[in-house]
Write a sequence for this structure.
């Protein structure tokens, strides 16, 4: 059965979780597979990595010695959250692609210490993560209300509840880099639409640097990123009754110097045909053929300013970690 209205769980008063994915999410995966696996250069969008196992693998990636972005972004938050809380006066934090909200606590701590924190609104496609983090955060921050939105930030932003007061919309982890330039500006425009005159966007972006450092971050020695990459095939097997053998594919991560982005791909080890049974779709792979599973764009200050400007936003703060690896930008609606 398809639910057009939001489903609400029976939860304690401090917690409300609405789901907007029933029916439509399955369709979005099916549409993406039908579209992406019948292209001349096969491709799938990265949001489908994140079932519960994919989310756990991503958390392990964040701990890897090669994966500097999480540590760098956390370092910026630790150095600057107090200033951000005071400057914005935010009473609530909306977080897009919130995951396990590990770094978010640094920001919540600062808002709590400033005495302004009232509500946290995590938005993520992975239901278990939104629910778990709602439970954890309401017990960690007495008096905090959590309104979780299980949904796709490309399609469900209208379900983010109206603001209680000045808010920060956080989009951390460099997730904006997963979109190619045109879609990136579309997504940013949609996010900008969430901001009232007193609100701020706090966005994390990875910066252009030595390609060896970048490639190592996406191809770790322990093979956790490779397992994360192959996880999308397991999602397809389970959700659409496909018959991929993940071991038929090698993990590939390379830096594209022209576009200044990392590409993750899965390369077929042998010629074979797999069937996505729910779509009645045979998918042929030549030996060595690649399926692109993620791009992760790296930014320069100029590129970021251009993207923010195109979305009607203006930069308020540009913050980097002591090693200059990663940037957090605070921006606001342009004054017209
Ligand atoms: C790269 S992880 C970042 C997680 C966390 N924000 C961090 O900084 O560590 C991306 C997160 O965004 C979520 N996500 C990806 N695409 C999404 C979409 N279109 N709508 C909602 N959530 C999405 C994933 O489920 C995942 O939790």
């Amino acid at each position: 059965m398809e639910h057009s209205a939001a489903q609400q769980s029976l939860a304690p008063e401090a917690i409300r979780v609405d789901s907007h994915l029933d029916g439509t999410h399955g369709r979005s995966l099916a549409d993406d597979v039908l579209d992406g696996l019948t292209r001349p250069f096969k491709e799938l969008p990265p949001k489908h990595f994140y079932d519960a196992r994919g989310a756990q693998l991503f958390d392990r990636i964040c701990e890897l010695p090669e994966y500097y972005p999480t540590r760098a972004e956390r370092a910026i938050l630790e150095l600057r959250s107090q200033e951000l809380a005071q400057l914005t006066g935010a009473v609530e934090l909306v977080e897009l692609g919130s995951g396990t909200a590990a770094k978010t606590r640094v920001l919540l701590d600062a808002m709590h210490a400033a005495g302004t924190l009232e509500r946290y609104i995590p938005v993520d496609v992975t239901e278990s993560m939104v629910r778990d983090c709602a439970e954890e955060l309401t017990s960690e921050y007495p008096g905090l209300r959590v309104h979780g939105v299980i949904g796709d930030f490309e399609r469900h932003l209208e379900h983010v509840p109206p603001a209680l007061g000045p808010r920060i919309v956080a989009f951390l982890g460099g997730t904006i880099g997963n979109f190619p330039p045109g879609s990136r500006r579309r997504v940013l425009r949609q996010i900008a639409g969430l901001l009232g005159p007193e609100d701020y966007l706090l966005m994390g972006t990875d910066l252009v640097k030595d390609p060896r450092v970048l490639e190592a971050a996406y191809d770790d020695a322990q093979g956790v990123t490779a397992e994360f990459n192959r996880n999308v095939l397991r999602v397809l097997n389970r959700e659409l009754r496909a018959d991929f053998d993940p071991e038929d594919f090698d993990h590939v991560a390379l830096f594209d110097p022209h576009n200044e982005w990392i590409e993750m791909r899965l390369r077929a080890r042998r010629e074979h045909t797999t069937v996505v049974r729910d779509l009645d779709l045979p998918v042929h792979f030549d030996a060595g053929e690649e399926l692109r599973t993620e791009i992760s764009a790296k930014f320069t200050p100029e590129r970021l300013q251009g993207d923010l400007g195109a979305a009607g936003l203006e930069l308020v703060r540009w913050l980097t970690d002591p090693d200059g690896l990663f940037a957090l930008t605070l921006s606001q609606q342009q004054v017209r």
In short: The radius of gyration is 20 Å. The mean pLDDT is 94.
